[in-house]
Amino acid sequence: MKTIIHNKLVRDHIPQIIQKDNKRCKVSILHDTAYIEQLKKKLIEEAQEVQEASTKKEIILELADLLEVMHALKASLQITSAEIEDARITKAHQNGTFTKHLFLEYVEV
Length: 109
Prior knowledge:
Blueprint: H1 14-20, H2 32-52, H3 56-77, H4 81-95
């Protein structure tokens, strides 16, 4: 049997899904700092998948994955949605939003 190394955070039902496919896997439980670090890596992985998505349906599915990781990270660090929204509003007031579709080509100094 071939072994494929993944070494990444996965959703809770993935081991059962793998076993239903008559495959074996090894998982471990991450705690505290390691879990948060893996969530941060997963956030980047999911953001990359959003970038690679080409259809609206694919983008929706990848954004859902990204949001799931964000929810887990928020819960793990006890961050509220209100705290994130407050920070978003503050940054919007300071730096603006993305509604004007501005693309910065260069800055002369």
